[in-house]
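explain this.
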Amino acid sequence: MEIDTMLTLYRRMFLIRSVEERIKAEYQNRNIRMAVHLSIGQEAVAAGVLLAARPTDCCLSTHRCHAHYLGKGGNLQEMIDELYSLETGCSRGYGGSMHLFDKKVNMWGSSSIVGGSIPIAVGMGLALKQAGTDSLSISFMGDGGGDEGAFYESLNLAALLAVPVMFVFENNRYSTITPQAKRQAALDVILKARSFGVEGVSVDGNDAVQVYETCLPAMDNIRQRQRPFLIEAVTYRLCAHVGPGSDFGPGRRPETELEEWRSREPLGRLASRIIHERPNGAALISAAQAHVLAEVDTVFESAKRRFDEVNARVGLAAPKPPDPSRV
């Protein structure tokens, strides 16, 4: 793979990671007043899939949608404004973290209902086909979405009507903190898809290069054949299901598992490859990080300033954090 492509993948992943780490930090001030579902550890899926896509391809996402919005080229300032409930947000402040929308880049929304956007993506793909385009619809879902009847109905309808849709099954092995094996009697999602007439392939969802290089020919195939296809990206969420806290420990996800997956997280893997393949790889990585961090800081400070201005104008103040001594 060319170094420019690897750097683009790295920058996109580092942007997603940096934005979500900043969300974790800012959440403590209680100005972001909504549930946030972070994708820390899963960035390679969004980056790889959406770099392989065309600008004209349409994307539908889930409650865990920050990475997909940014991977599709959504406006960062408008996304952060949305989290601060500002009218300049991508959904005019009404949608919040789980309902990001940007028609300009064909990000056609996300749903807080598990599996809720999958049928919409099939309808979008059918509309693209009927319009005579060679664009496709991309439907992101988690393995929790594989528990829902809407997923299987959508596979069936997409195959029956020959819809150009790519189902992206982000398998992080947990629905909240319940393992996939405790929810699904049969775990092989590729076999399930094939039973409905939908071909698919499983990839290492922590390897951005593999995701990208698998999606490129798969998307070409969807365009040419006007048939659905499923990508299972096996990955792992390094953060809590929701919010900035933790869901590791007794009765939850095992901490030994977390440490195992930390060693395989996607940013470090791709950075190591770039450094190994280019003599100036470390300098390229550092420059990319500095640029992204400066952009993220500028965007958050702008949103926070305007949020405070609005609150001052209407006479509101951010709720104070609870007194730890009284909890």
